[in-house]
UniProtKB/TrEMBL annotation, chains A, B:
KW Lyase (keyword) present: no
Residue ranges of every copy of the HTH asnC-type domain listed in the record: 3-64
GO MF term set: sequence-specific DNA binding
Gene3D superfamilies from the UniProt entry: 3.30.70.920, Winged helix-like DNA-binding domain superfamily/Winged helix DNA-binding domain
Protein name from the UniProt record: AsnC family transcriptional regulator
GO CC aspect terms: cytosol
InterPro entries (UniProt xref): AsnC-type_HTH_dom, Dimeric_a/b-barrel, Tscrpt_reg_AsnC-like, Tscrpt_reg_AsnC/Lrp_C, WH-like_DNA-bd_sf, WH_DNA-bd_sf
Annotated source species: Streptomyces lavendofoliae
GO terms (BP aspect): response to amino acid
Keyword Cytoplasm tagged: no
Keyword list, A-Z: DNA-binding, Transcription, Transcription regulation
Coiled coil: none
Amino acid sequence: MAIDHLDGRLIALLAREPRIGVLEASRRLGVARGTVQARLDRLQSNGVIRGFGPEVDPAALGYPVTAFATLEIKQGQGADVREHLAGVPEVLELHTTTGHGDMLCRLVARSNADLQRVIDRVVGFDGIVRASTAIVMENPVPLRIIPLVEQAASEE
Amino acid sequence: MAIDHLDGRLIALLAREPRIGVLEASRRLGVARGTVQARLDRLQSNGVIRGFGPEVDPAALGYPVTAFATLEIKQGQGADVREHLAGVPEVLELHTTTGHGDMLCRLVARSNADLQRVIDRVVGFDGIVRASTAIVMENPVPLRIIPLVEQAASEE
DNA sequence: CCATCCACTGGTCGGATTGCCCAGTCCCCG
DNA sequence: CGGGGACTGGGCAATCCGACCAGTGGATGG
């Protein structure tokens, strides 16, 4: 499993300018096109790069409010709760965490008022004992990966 | 701000198979190529689609452990804390939330032991009063957007 | 020290796709 | 009823993609 310095530069380049093709990337990186192709193939089969899906902004879709909800689950109801939450479109991700056999999920809503509806729908399920919600006010560091990639590339 | 049914199908299609081009997409959707191009242009200038950056898997980079840390900040130290956390590569995202004037951040680490190092680095800063960490065990719902897109498209 | 393996280079090839243009049609809205 | 917007279907040159190949350099292992 590689991730050498060239891989790091390639990923960073693609993150900055996703639209450029293999040819242009090889020019920028100063290597042959075949090299870039080989690296990309390897990174993708490695699973380092999962894909190049579109990044959709929930706010632009009409869901400008983000919140994180911590859920307390009734013993043995984990699977049911997972299934229930997977069926709620406003649940963007769900994690089970240490702590209290709890779960943490990311929610979006159309407004603060709409958030109430979403939360009601989320917690309106038998397996969920209690929920505590934190509404996101600001997002000083949006989801990012480049710094980590660069660290991994330099440590190698 | 649009997001009609065709937009929804287009986004879903691109999410499922990001490698297909405009031409292939137009074939799948049963519309003219120019239409797909126009829709894509609009979605991107709308900001609905932010871009097509590579999705990098931290686990494949050697950081298989994910955690969420809730931070309690000393009054008036917000800006400094933000800057500090932005400089830590293992901090993948950072939010300020309601609740206790707190922050929530997503961390990754090489191992549970390494997580201790990361947390020490995160909280080893004057403005941070207290931190509570939840380690992610499972991720039943990975970050997703399609269900929301489909809901937005059908409601329109 | 030598043979081997591997990654990279620099080049070519045909096929496919892209970005851009256009005229014509349809349909909604004022 | 007229106009504007969106979509269609077509065409154009330029570009890029994926694949392939021989040659080279460095690292590895015997």
